[in-house]
Amino acid sequence: MASPYRSGRATAPSVAGGDDGLVDALIQQFADPLAFYRELVQNAIDAGATRVSIGASWEASAEPGAGTMVVSVRDDGCGMSRQVLENQLTVLFRSGKEGQEGKIGKFGIGFVSVLALVPEKVVVRTTTGDTDLWTLELRSDQSYELFQAPGGGSSGTTVTLHVPLARDEVDRFVDGSLRALRKWCRHAELPIHFVAHLVGEGEPLREARVDTPLSVEASISVRVEEGGTTVVAGVIEHGSPQLAFFNRGLLLHETTEAVLGDHVRVSIQDGRLEHTLSRDSV
User: Fold this and answer.
1) What is the pLDDT of residue 157?
2) Runs of H (alpha helix) within the chain
3) What's the pLDDT score for residue 105?
């Protein structure tokens, strides 16, 4: 690859000189290391994407049983400019979505979730379509390099994680990926396709469509839409109650406490709902 347009280090401007401890603490807030799927799908929705394609490809290395899982999340959204990459994506607590109606992300820290899996590197390839193609290579120590190439064509962004992974951990990783996607993105407002395979083998390990309409698992359910809010409520005979909140189909918060009764499950969708900074409430 050509010499980088710029090299640098992802920083937290609220701490003089940056603070690795702060970044580590932010990574730890994502209790599920696979929650990065939600953050990247959220970014795609906020970028106006009409679809998201997720691939997980495992390739063996020279060492027996070892290899690398390459996870890519691709969208056809508006893409990012150099200014967005340098002044927002690589700077914690700086979000270009603040105050923008209809945007889910607010705090500018979601992208750091890609480091929760301790990848060897994260590569972001993005273009707005009418400008150059930018490639950002981010390493686990938060250092990065930014490369420039002639652009053109369709806008969009692809985020690729290179994660060291043993062969005997592949099935668990793939199953966990689908569980995470179906938890966080199960009612996303755009199509999400997932496919996993072993490099060099024909048939996919898994292939699935993730998104489904807003719903609850219940014997009887009703759906009410009014003023930008959609509520689906159902009555159950067995199992745990549930209360879940969504923004544009992405899960913000859910609980199995009997907030509305022992035999009731409710899903609420509203574009005005926001998660807290710690992502533990709305």
Assistant:
1) 95
2) 20-28, 36-46, 82-84, 170-184
3) 42
Residue with tokens 């993005």: 126
List of the chain residues with pLDDT < 50: 12-18, 93-108
The predicted pLDDT at position 149 comes to: 87
For residue 76, give the CATH number of its domain: 3.30.565.10
Which token pair is 281?
A: 């409430």
d(Cα 38, Cα 118) in Å, to the nearest integer?
Answer: 17
Contacts 24+ apart (CB under 8 A), 64-68: 65/166, 65/167, 65/168, 66/164, 66/166, 66/167, 67/164, 67/165, 67/166, 67/167, 67/170, 68/120, 68/162, 68/163, 68/164, 68/165
Q: What is the count of structural domains for the chain?
A: 2
The first and second tokens of residue 223, run together, are: 């759906």
Q: Give the span between the Cα atoms of 214 and 265, in whole angstroms.
A: 12
Q: 43 in a domain, yes or no? A: yes
Q: Are residues 145 and 225 in the same domain?
A: no
CA gap 262, 280 in Å, rounded: 22
Q: What are phi and psi of 182, to 5 degrees?
A: -75, -20
Amino acid symbol at 235: V
Which tokens hold the place of 86?
Answer: 């340098």
How would DSSP label each residue in 73-123? EEE-S----HHHIIIIITBTT--TTTT-TT----SS-GGGGGGTT--SEEE
